[in-house]
């Protein structure tokens, strides 16, 4: 087994439109002075926050607060979702159920989308190269296990259940905040993701998947961390898991209007 210099620190978090007019000559216009919906505000704020658009770009603390405050106030109804939709049914008698992805928007600077997970749905351990990612659990309960490379050692274990209390948006950065993570749905749940910039094979931002092994699994390796290595693991690159199936579906919530 080939294990490259891939020691990582771990962090575990248990957390839990109307239709457009059919007349081509008409365009919906917002009434003067009316407040745009949360989805539109999210889009417009993303355009400003990720205007730079390059890999490795870090939004300013003020921009992080602005974008996070919008996400913190969003729930499933703001994006046209409810827990009784077929996306959230587990119809697989055995194995890992498929996941549904709802595409809201993507350009070369950022993307917005929603992952819909049935109970026991899993998004395997993967990375976000050069990206800043905002994630908001819209409803449900899920377990999140995340890692950063050893130059940013962090470990935490917390429990949040947004079904009963609000869940703040989480943020990961290119080299901090749990850039590599996996999701396991405890109940049906929906996660809204904002990626800046998005994955791009031509630009070298590939999604890489990993196996993880306890730090003590390789006692012959040099001691790289103090103590017993609690909160650390070895990560090994792997192919996309065969049982990780994602179906695309049409987003039916409030539309994003580009200006």
Automatic annotation (TrEMBL):
It catalyses: L-cysteine + O2 = 3-sulfino-L-alanine + H(+). Residues 20-32 have a biased composition (Basic residues). Its cofactor is Fe(2+). The keyword Oxidoreductase applies. One of its GO terms (biological process) is detection of hypoxia. One of its GO terms (molecular function) is metal ion binding. Its EC number is 1.13.11.20. CDD domains: cupin_ADO. InterPro entries: PCO/ADO (IPR012864), RmlC-like_jellyroll (IPR014710), RmlC_Cupin_sf (IPR011051). SUPFAM superfamilies: RmlC-like cupins (SSF51182). Pfam families: PCO_ADO. Keywords: Iron, Metal-binding, Oxidoreductase. Residues 1-34 are annotated as: Disordered. It is an enzyme of class 1 (oxidoreductase). The keyword Metal-binding applies. Belongs to the cysteine dioxygenase family. This is cysteine dioxygenase. It comes from Phoenix dactylifera (Date palm). The gene is LOC103705025.
């Amino acid at each position: 087994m080939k294990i490259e210099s891939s020691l990582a620190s771990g962090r575990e978090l248990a957390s839990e439109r109307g239709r457009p007019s059919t007349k081509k000559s008409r365009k919906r216009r917002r009434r003067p002075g009316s407040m745009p919906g949360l989805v539109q505000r999210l889009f417009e704020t993303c355009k400003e926050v990720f205007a730079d658009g390059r890999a490795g770009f870090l939004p300013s603390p003020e921009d992080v607060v602005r974008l996070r405050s919008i996400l913190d106030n969003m729930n499933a109804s703001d994006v046209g979702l409810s827990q009784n939709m077929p996306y959230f049914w587990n119809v697989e008698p055995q194995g890992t159920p498929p996941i549904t992805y709802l595409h809201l928007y993507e350009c070369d600077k950022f993307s917005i989308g929603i992952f819909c997970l049935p109970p026991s749905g899993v998004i395997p351990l993967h990375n976000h190269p050069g990206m800043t990612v905002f994630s908001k659990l819209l409803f449900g309960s899920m377990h999140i296990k995340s890692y950063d490379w050893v130059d940013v050692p962090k470990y935490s274990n917390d429990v949040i259940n947004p079904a009963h209390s609000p869940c703040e948006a989480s943020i990961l950065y290119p080299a901090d905040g749990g850039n590599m993570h996996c999701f396991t749905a405890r109940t049906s749940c929906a996660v809204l993701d904002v990626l800046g910039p998005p994955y791009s094979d031509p630009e070298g931002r590939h999604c890489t998947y990993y196996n993880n092994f306890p730090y003590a699994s390789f006692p012959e390796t040099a001691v790289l961390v103090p103590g017993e290595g609690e909160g650390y693991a070895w990560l090994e690159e792997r192919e996309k898991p065969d049982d990780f199936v994602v179906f695309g579906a049409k987003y039916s919530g409030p539309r994003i209007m580009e200006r």
